[in-house]
UniProtKB/TrEMBL annotation:
It comes from the Bacteria. CDD domains: USP-like (cd00293). This is Universal stress protein. It comes from Allopontixanthobacter confluentis. Gene3D superfamilies: 3.40.50.12370.
């Protein structure tokens, strides 16, 4: 990984994902691009003529400028290569545009307007419409130790396979890799790949892994996987996102929705 894209937005998780981005940039000797997408086209309920928004614009521009000045000053003292891009537009569209020429996108688990108990719409948009893997950083995370165990969630799907391939550069740094499946109470038609094939793929890259099967419990699969990763003191989780349509995930729930709604560990996610 040589090119990293960091989402810049003033929220509770900014400091944490900045530190994670710096950790990754140092480990991979990568270039860090900081993308500050400022959306001035905001709407206020009842503001039919846009007068309130017009009054807000100078304040929004001032806040964006202050944030950039503060972070650029900090970055100038860091031992990484970096640049800053400030653009006007919707966050998801600007992130998608720049993600295309980056190896990894670092963004928070939260997003503007996110409802409590729901996953970030930014992660969903980049998962479905983009091809670049993401590191989703919970607000409480302050660093990323790439040497710690990597907990890989495996269900044999194409999403899990794509994410496993994308994770290889990071998995090579981990002292231990765990490939975890959940013994679901359903039969498979042979379309899904067994965990042994995932392990064989990793072995060709010089990565040994431990395969474990977690029992199916009354709680959700997402909760089962996350609890196991926490119990093992894993450093991060590798997860294939949205193995079924996002609409169904939203209505019926799903592993992706569960783990992105309230993540406890950083998530390396791809679709």
């Amino acid at each position: 990984m040589r090119s990293l894209l960091l989402h810049i937005y003033q929220d509770d998780g900014l400091e944490g994902r900045l530190q994670v981005a710096l950790d990754l940039a140092r480990r991979f000797d990568a270039h860090l691009t900081c993308l500050q997408a400022v959306n001035y086209e905001v709407a206020m309920p009842g503001d039919f003529y846009g007068s309130v928004v017009i009054e807000m614009l100078p304040h929004l521009r001032e806040q964006a400028a202050k944030l950039r000045e503060k972070l650029e000053q900090r970055l100038s003292h860091e031992d990484v290569r970096w640049d800053w891009i400030e653009e006007t537009g919707l966050m998801d569209t600007r992130l998608l545009a720049h993600a295309a020429l980056n190896d990894l996108v670092i963004l928070g688990a939260d997003a503007p307007g996110r409802r409590e108990g729901s996953p970030s719409y930014l992660v969903g948009a980049l998962s479905i419409h983009g091809r670049t893997p993401m590191m989703v950083v919970p607000d409480h995370i302050t660093n990323l130790d790439c040497d710690r165990e990597a907990f890989v969630c495996w269900d044999g799907s194409s999403e899990a396979s794509n994410t496993l391939r994308a994770a290889v550069p990071m998995l090579k740094l981990s002292r231990h890799v765990c490939l975890a499946t959940v013994a679901e109470r359903k039969s498979y038609d042979g379309a899904d790949l067994p965990a042994t094939q995932g392990a064989e793929y990793l072995s060709r890259h010089g990565i040994e892994c431990e395969m474990i099967e977690l029992p199916f419990e009354s709680r959700s699969i997402g909760e089962t996987l996350q609890s196991a990763a926490l119990a093992r003191k894993s450093g991060y989780i590798v997860l294939g996102a949205y193995g079924r349509p996002r609409m169904l995930e939203g209505v019926f729930g799903g592993v992706t929705r569960t783990m992105l709604s309230d993540p406890e560990l950083p998530l390396l996610v791809a679709h």
